[in-house]
Amino acid sequence: MKPIKTVKGWKKSKRSLFKVIPLKYRKALPKGKIPKNIKPELRRVFEYNPSQLYKLINEKRIRNPYIRRQSINMTSIFPKKKTYCNCGCGKKLTGKQRRWASKECIKFVGLIYGIVAGDSQVLRYLIGSYYGYYCVDCKCNQFKCTLELDHIFPVKWGGGIGWLSNYSFLCTSCHREKTNKDFGFSKK
Question: Do 142 and 134 form a contact (C-beta atoms < 8 A)?
């Protein structure tokens, strides 16, 4: 199946997001591995089940999985509700609140938005907070080598919109090796 390179092309196509990206790269992170001393908004992101979000993205054709980073509209992933917080926490809006019930809700929504939009700074922060800052192949840390964010399921095959389970850190040499292997390039 040939990749679709434009957002308009993806919106017109009949392909399902669920047939492009394997389930394991759209799943929530394992709860047992969440670090103990972690900020509440990070814990909430790590425990978040993105299945409803992926259904919404697939139905509205919000994001093309063959493109690494895209700008998207916040209301397309968090539709406006009149009396309750738009993040899904269930808190009632009071006073001057129009969309979010608390600062924690705003931080949570910002992180989820960063994941869906493919913001590399947000992804690096979240992956580092969850797994630690080291290469998953050779185990060198951020002080010994340059770490790069890797799409486990490559963008070329539709992995541009994977959840946190689709990302890991690799050092430059391990990342180059993996990319060459993924695309069938020979060593020179």
Answer: yes
Which pTM was predicted? Answer: 0.85
The predicted pLDDT at position 4 comes to 60
d(CA 129, CA 10): 32
Q: How far apart are CA 116 and CA 19, in angstroms?
A: 18
Per-residue burial over 3-31, b if 16 or more Cβ lie within 10 Å, else e, is bbeebeebeeeeeebeebbbeebbbebee
Lowest-confidence range among 3-12, 20-29, 83-92, 117-126? 3-12
* Per-residue model confidence as pLDDT tens digits over 81-97: 889 999 888 899 998 88
Tokens of 36: 């103990």
Q: In this structure, is the dihedral angle defined by the CA atoms of residues 94, 95, 99 and 104, taken in order, positive or negative?
A: negative
Dig out the tokens for 22 from the structure: 């394997």
Of the candidates 136, 113, 114, the one whose C-alpha atom is nearest the C-alpha of residue 125 is: 114
Q: Whole-angstrom Cα distance, residue 61 to residue 68?
A: 15
Residue by residue, DSSP assigns 95-160 as TT-SS-SSHHHHHHHHHHHHHHHT-HHHHHHHHHHHH-SB-TTT--BTTTS-EEEEESS-GGGTGG
CA angle centred on 130, ends 126 and 132, rounded to 5°: 100
Q: Residue 15 is which amino acid?
A: R
